TrEMBL record:
GO CC field: mitochondrion
Main location as per UniProt: mitochondrion
InterPro entries: Aminoglycoside_PTrfase, Kinase-like_dom_sf, Mito_inheritance_9
Cell location: Mitochondrion
Family: Belongs to the AIM9 family.
Protein name: Altered inheritance of mitochondria protein 9, mitochondrial
């Protein structure tokens, strides 16, 4: 048994059997919620995705949502994902190979939207369903407060299965094809407008550049040259993704073309997944809705209003938040925002943060220094 990975939500182990078989054992942490229900939903979702939607997903071998077992914990045992992690080989792949992966990613998205559900929420086997009159009453109250979207745009509200994390590390590739898509723990049935999300490896928020500049061959700075080449390739892949979507899945392109479609999705996501002190992304969405309300053509006044003082305070908080986001982005793949780093990178990470603390103690003063000392005490405990 080898520890494969550990994050905020799961501990993952690779189990090698005497007969050569390999299994993946995953132990959820309490932060995922009611573990027995979470596991039951994940198992049902994987079964549905594998056998109804025909999306390649590792098979569940066994699972237990209780602790009264030989392992003494809730766990799920699955086949090992076949192939290599896309995030590992993506940079080495030729452009034509990446085009094929783009086409298969779109095919997966189309399959996910091919079945309409009559309800939102986690998918469960019928035998696991428990009637809850209180929950039903609450849902009636919520639906009653949202008549506008339900009546004016019913297509956008149809329930479809939503995999929220189509990132390269969750795809596995073999012989140029997708052989596994993992991480279904948080998959749920959501309104269609929630599907407005381009796969992360195909997002391109920068300038769309489809050709290398004329001066490319004469560039002497190798790092800058590689950066330019990477940006062009990213733009080409983003362009190709939308071309494939338009040709093979026009309903998704219609979704992308809706006014404020990303803000609609992110408003719901941030409102449903908010932590103390992390209201800024939600407030940013609400502020954007206020500023661009007319684009939605609702026919009713905007129900959101921020005062000039609130806007000023929000803009200052946004500046601080963006600086922190840029810092953690610079450490992407090395240390995650929740503090995770691999065993191999731990010593370098420890050294980095100790150096950062020493530098901060030298350059800050007054209240900034006091805040920094308080917020960086944990760095002193690194061993």
């Amino acid at each position: 048994m080898v520890k494969h990975a550990e994050g905020g939500f799961n501990k993952v182990f690779r189990l090698s059997m005497d007969n050569g078989a390999v299994l993946i054992a995953r132990i959820p942490t309490p932060i995922v919620g009611p573990i027995s229900r979470v596991l039951a939903s994940e198992v049902a979702t994987i079964d549905f995705v594998r056998n109804v939607l025909d999306i390649p997903v590792p098979k569940v071998i066994a699972w237990d949502g209780e602790t009264a077992n030989a392992a003494g914990c809730e766990l799920i045992l699955m086949e090992e994902a076949r192939g290599k992690q896309l995030g590992v080989i993506w940079a080495e792949m030729e452009l034509d190979e990446k085009f094929k992966i783009v086409e298969e990613v779109v095919a997966v998205q189309k399959k996910l939207q091919s079945v309409t559900f009559s309800r939102y929420g986690s998918l469960h086997y019928k035998s696991d369903h428990k009637s809850d009159a209180a929950g039903y009453s609450a849902s009636i109250d919520i639906r009653g407060s949202l008549p506008l979207s339900a009546k004016t745009q019913p297509v956008l509200n149809r329930g479809t299965l939503f995999h929220w994390d189509l990132r390269a590390p969750n795809f596995f590739i073999e012989d140029g094809h997708i052989t596994s898509l993992i991480d279904w723990q948080d998959a749920w049935i959501a309104p269609l407008f929630m599907q407005e999300r381009r796969p992360q490896l195909l997002e391109d928020d920068g300038e769309m550049v489809l050709r290398l500049p004329d001066y490319f061959e004469t560039m002497e700075d190798k790092a800058e040259k590689a950066k330019v080449q990477a940006q062009v390739e990213k733009s080409i892949l983003s362009w190709y993704y939308h071309r494939v979507v338009r040709e093979r899945f026009p309903a998704l392109q219609d979704l992308f073309d809706l006014p404020l479609t990303r803000i609609r999705r992110e408003t719901v996501l941030f409102a449903s997944d908010i932590w103390e002190g992390e209201t800024l992304p939600l407030r940013a969405c609400l502020y954007q809705l206020q500023m661009q309300w007319d684009k939605l053509n609702t026919g009713i006044p905007c129900p959101i209003h921020f005062s000039s003082q609130e806007i000023e305070a929000h803009e200052q908080a946004s500046t601080d938040w963006n600086e922190k986001a840029e810092f953690w982005a610079s450490l992407s793949g090395f240390v995650s925002p929740d503090g995770y780093t691999s065993h191999g990178d731990y010593e370098d990470a420890r050294k980095l943060f100790k150096e950062l603390r020493e530098k901060g103690l030298q350059i800050f003063s007054g209240k900034e220094l006091a805040d920094f000392v308080d917020q960086s005490k944990w760095m002193e405990q690194l061993r």
